Amino acid sequence: MNTTRQAVARLFFALWPAPEVRDALAAIARGLQAKCGGRPTRADRIHLTLFFVGQVARERLVELESVGSDVHGTRFTLDFDRLGYFRRSRIAWVGAACPPPLAALEAQLRARLAAYASPNDDRPYLPHVTLLRDAPRKPSEQDLPPVTWHAREFVLVESVMAAVASRYDIIGRWSLT
Questions:
Q1: How many CB atoms lie within 10 A of CB 118?
Q2: pLDDT tens digits for 28-44?
Q3: pLDDT reading at 116 higher than 50
Q4: Do strands 39-40 and 128-133 pair parallel, antiparallel, or not at all (unpaired)?
Q5: Torsion sign across C-alpha atoms 12, 107, 127, 118
Q6: Of 9, 41, 47, 53, which one is the catalytic site residue?
Q7: Is this structure's pTM higher than 0.90?
Q8: Distance of CA 146 to CAs 10, 97, 102, 117, 149, Å?
Q9: Residues with Cβ within 8 Å of residue 91, at least 6 apart in sequence
Q10: Is 150 a catalytic residue?
Q11: CA gap 101, 64 in Å, rounded
Q12: CB 151 within 8 A of CB 77
């Protein structure tokens, strides 16, 4: 067994969807796959990233849990109603306007986690959910039924790599007031 893998964790803070939101987004991903190609995001991996932390020594997990405990935000609603495409990475996504409570939550996390930021992380925050990877075609500008997501908490997630299929494990959870 690789002890280096056990010594580090690949982490990110995110919003995690309720089952009905997850299922609605997964259905959109399957529909887009028929039109755009690519691989749909597995339903159990659908999320909205707030801040990608990256590889962290496991002994530092307590620091990240402390960040989660110190960050405070209010509940908000997102209406995912637009499709987008990152041409270079060939990712099709669904996005939403960024309400002020989400912008404030993301800004708090970014400020508290500045030591973990990559050099090109100065781009404006774009709330989106990846629906397809390796999509050779951009989604068309079709009418998309909005998917409403009521954000009530945020989470710290570990991406666990495995030989057959990777998985996401929630290792911390904090309520929005």
A1: 8
A2: 999 999 999 999 999 99
A3: yes
A4: antiparallel
A5: negative
A6: 47
A7: yes
A8: 31, 12, 18, 32, 10
A9: 85, 130, 132, 133, 135
A10: no
A11: 21
A12: yes
